[in-house]
Design brief:
single chain, disordered C terminus, Immunoglobulin-like, 17% helix, alpha+beta, 8 domains, five-stranded antiparallel β-sheet, six-stranded mixed β-sheet, disordered N terminus
Length: 740
């Protein structure tokens, strides 16, 4: 063969595994086949992908001194084997190729075959797709190195050795790097930065067999890291986000599994979404651009919630604690709670004397804190990555009747409010607040020891001023949690009468001579003074007389009207009373007393019901009696022959006739309508049914049988003249009305 002749001329040695060069290096059979076919015949050979790569490398380096040799090398991947069409375009120039050039060419093949030939390595199922490489850049986006990592080979047949070989194969180089760990950093000097590099890892198990990972291709200078989402918002029917670099993005609804993929060519991207009745969150993933990177993986899911709208609803409750303290519980509800990352809560004193506020960042919907007895403003807003909701606020009012450690005494004179207190406190730092409402409170901080204080005017007439004194644990301005309310009082510069009456007048439990009335509070801003009690006006509409009652209490808003006239209409009104007198009465309420007392009415009802019951019984008895009498007249009783003694006699007649005929007793006299029986004991003769039907009188005779000896007197009844009676009974009708 031509290949053998060429080898003989070059003093090469062949074997079953390949070709051995004069220096003893081996070359795979695939390369030998290619050499024999291409160098001698110029035909196309089929070799493994690593051998093809080596041929390409060696051909470039060997033929660089022979520009006349043209060739075409085009690898095509197919099941890890490359099919290489290799054509010698100018075969004539091979005559000018020196044997030394051919030997140099083969030497390159022999030297590089061992590092890049993976034809003898198999790819086990449990070690597939386990390698991943990524390029690493500095802050100026300059390429530094490539870092590769893979899963350790953990087969039962694997050796305890952790030696691996990392193979690098590019168009201009091929190298195998030994390493002991499951990762390796490839420096820039070992890479063809601008060319595609194929990387894989091989390992030899205990039996000496070679196993390899999948091939990983990368262009080192291209950043294949997935871009980062720097900003994202889901508002209305659009999804907007900002990426750190171009790439691909896929998105889906949070409750869906269907992805939608788009190419992102600019940093800002907006996607139109279908209209939905309810807001929903979207999940987004991003990866590098497939046009510049060979291996791009989807980055972890990023949840983009819907933009928050509206505001939470706040509910505030207070509870009494130690003197001068109250526990404030704030609860809120938000309809879009499922799309919220958290809540910002802020508590601020009114007025903010020490310029401190308390802030919380929480995921809960309940907040509890111990504060002083004062006015506080609580504000809540929800937030997520799409933004924040509207702010909602609520005012915490002091307890109505708090327990306080001290008392404040206030007097008004010459447009000045003079304050004293008890007991005296030793702290040389005190805060005094006063005002008509929480949003009009004024504050004064005193940093010296005092035992009284005068608040200068002017003050509004008929306005209630609330005055509060606060102390601090360390006698200096601190948070409201370290604040204690010393005392609270109120004062009017000048009082008036209430300008409105109570609301919600109601009348309950109306009887024959009494009625209970109830009413609501008069708003504090309408009292225009300290409320002392209530005046009640009750007017009889028929007599045009009015009764006035005064209730000396502001907490009790219920009164029992007594001594009223039965079956009369009344009109009732209520007015508040201050030191200046009674104010404007409330709206009137009409009611009418009962004509009868409840007991009387019940007695009347019971009497009526009893009379109706007794009358019903009497009528029932009377009807029954009349019905019975009429039935006896029109429907008399008819005897039932079935129960007649005569029927029995009819059945027993033949046997008894025989007894009568054979009887030895002498004949006895009997009339034609009766039967006389002679026995030892007297027997009453029973009248027959035929006698009753004929309306005839049947004579019953009673006789005593003559005394005979027991041996001579048989226990047999004697009947005479029975034949005539039997004939009568036989002629009687059979179908009659019977009485059972």
């Amino acid at each position: 063969m031509c290949a053998l002749n060429s080898c003989e001329k070059s003093k090469w040695c062949t074997s079953d595994d390949g070709i051995t060069t004069p220096g003893g290096s081996s070359m795979s059979v695939g390369i030998a086949t290619w050499l024999s076919s291409s160098l001698c015949n110029g035909e196309i050979g089929y070799i493994s992908h690593n051998d093809a790569h080596l041929v390409s490398l060696c051909t470039k380096q060997t033929m660089s001194t022979h520009q006349g040799l043209g060739y075409l090398l085009h690898p095509m991947l197919h099941n890890n084997v490359y099919t290489i069409p290799f054509a010698i375009l100018i075969l004539a120039e091979f005559e000018n190729v020196l044997p030394s050039s051919v030997c140099l060419f083969v030497c390159f093949l022999a030297a590089l075959s061992e590092d890049c030939d993976s034809s003898d390595c198999r790819m086990p199922p449990d070690w597939h797709d386990v390698i991943f490489c990524k390029s690493v850049f500095n802050t100026k986006k300059r390429f530094l190195h490539v870092h590769c990592s893979w899963s350790p080979y953990l087969s039962s047949s694997s050796s305890k050795s952790t030696e691996y070989k990392l193979h690098l194969w590019s168009d201009s180089d091929c190298e195998a790097i030994a390493t002991n760990g499951p990762d390796y950093t490839i420096r820039k000097n070992k890479l063809a930065v601008t060319e595609k590099t194929t990387i894989w890892v091989s390992h030899h198990n205990v039996s000496g067999h070679c196993v390899k990972t999948n091939n990983f291709s990368i262009v080192p200078q291209v950043n294949c890291e997935p871009p980062n989402i720097q900003y994202a918002v889901h508002a209305s029917n659009s999804l907007s986000f900002k990426l750190s670099d171009n790439g691909q993005v896929r998105y889906r609804e949070n409750v869906s599994t269907q992805w939608h993929i788009i190419n992102v060519t600019s940093m800002w991207t907006t996607i139109s979404l279908p209209e939905t009745s309810m807001p929903t969150s979207y999940v987004v993933q991003q990866r590098c651009s497939r046009e510049s990177c060979f291996h791009c993986i989807w980055k972890g899911e990023t949840k983009i919630p819907h933009k928050l709208t509206g505001a939470p609803d706040i509910f505030v409750t207070t509870k009494k604690l130690s003197p001068g303290k109250q526990r404030v519980t704030v609860e809120w509800k938000y309809i879009k709670h499922d799309y919220v990352d958290g809540y910002f809560a802020t508590i601020q004193r009114l007025p903010n004397s020490c310029d401190y506020s308390i802030s919380f960042n929480t995921t809960n919907t309940t907040l509890q804190i111990d504060l002083s007895v004062a006015f506080f403003n609580v504000s809540i807003r929800a937030y997520n990555r799409a933004g924040s909701s509207e702010l909602t606020s609520a005012v915490v009012h002091p307890l109505d009747m708090p327990e306080l450690p001290g008392k404040i005494f206030a007097t008004y004179e010459n447009d000045t409010i003079f304050l004293t207190w008890s007991p005296l406190f030793s702290c040389n730092f005190v805060v005094i607040n006063w005002g008509t409402s929480f949003f009009q409170m004024k504050s004064r901080t005193l940093m010296h020891k005092i035992d009284n204080y005068s608040i200068p005017g002017p003050f509004e007439r008929m306005k209630r001023y609330m005055i509060m004194i606060y102390l601090y644990d360390s006698c200096q301005c601190q948070y409201s949690t370290n604040e204690t309310t010393f005392g609270i009082t109120s004062i009017y510069s000048e009082e008036g009468v209430p300008r409105t009456g109570p609301s919600d007048i109601s009348v309950r439990n109306v009887t024959k001579t009494a009625a209970a009335i109830e009413w609501g509070e008069i708003p504090e801003e309408d009292c225009l003074g300290f409320l002392l009690g209530y005046r009640i006006y009750c007017t009889s509409t028929s007599r045009n007389t009015t009764l006035e009652m005064f209730l000396n209490s502001t907490n009790q808003r219920r009164y029992l009207l007594e001594g009223l006239t039965s079956d009369h209409a009344y009109e009732v009104t209520v007015a508040g009373v201050t030191s200046k007198g009674a104010g404007t009465p409330s709206a009137s309420r009409m009611f009418k007393t009962l004509k009868y007392a409840e007991v009387e009415f019940q007695s009347i009802i019971m009497s009526i019901c009893g009379g109706i019951f007794i009358s019903a019984i009497l009528i029932s008895v009377l009807v029954y009696t009349i019905h019975r009498k009429k039935k006896n007249v029109y429907f008399p009783k008819i005897p039932n022959p079935k129960h007649s003694q005569v029927i029995k006699m009819n059945k027993e007649a033949p046997s008894k006739i025989k007894l009568i005929q054979s009887s030895q007793f002498p004949e006895t006299n009997c009339d034609r309508y009766g039967v006389e029986v002679i026995e030892q004991i007297p027997i009453v003769s029973i009248p027959t049914e035929s006698c009753i039907q004929r309306r005839e009188t049947c004579t019953m005779k009673k006789q005593t049988h003559p005394q005979v000896s027991p041996a001579q007197a048989p226990n047999v009844q004697d009947y005479t003249s029975m034949m005539s009676m039997i004939n009568v009974f036989k002629r009687m009708p059979q179908s009659t009305n019977h009485v059972n």
